[in-house]
Amino acid sequence: MLVRQATSADLDELSILFDGYRMFYKQPSDPGAAKQFLSERIERNESVILVAVYNDAMVGFTQLYPIFSSVGMKRAWLLNDLFVPENARGSGAADALLAAAEQLGADTSARYLMLQTAKDNYRAQRVYERNGWERDAEYLVYNKRC
């Protein structure tokens, strides 16, 4: 399993995975918009997208956005997206992507990595916990739609 940073040359294959990720979260399929969104993130250097490749096929991705810790006065990363399609689950792609995200955090001297997942996404929760991620018991998360 090879994990590397995505480039604009990966957009066709990556946008199919990204569209699948969005559909997993009950969004309508829109491959064109998916490709445009990812293209903008890559061109503007607004996120880091890591892809897992096995036998020359893309089998998963994660997208991280830079944030900052005011208290720690350091960079942090929001692991906003992680997706491995059903046919590649159990391949080790998720573990490899999480390890690469952790390496990105170390390489950038980040204070922490954070993520959120659906309360009923038990399979993902097991993957995160198996990889050393800890559920936050101290802070509540609030959201407000704009």
Automatic annotation (TrEMBL):
Domain (N-acetyltransferase) ranges: 1-146
Matching InterPro entries: Acyl_CoA_acyltransferase, Bact_Acetyltransf, GNAT_dom
Protein origin, superkingdom: Bacteria
Keyword Acyltransferase listed: yes
Keywords tagged on the record: Acyltransferase, Transferase
PROSITE patterns, A to Z: GNAT (PS51186)
Protein name: GNAT family N-acetyltransferase
Organism, scientific name: Sediminibacterium roseum
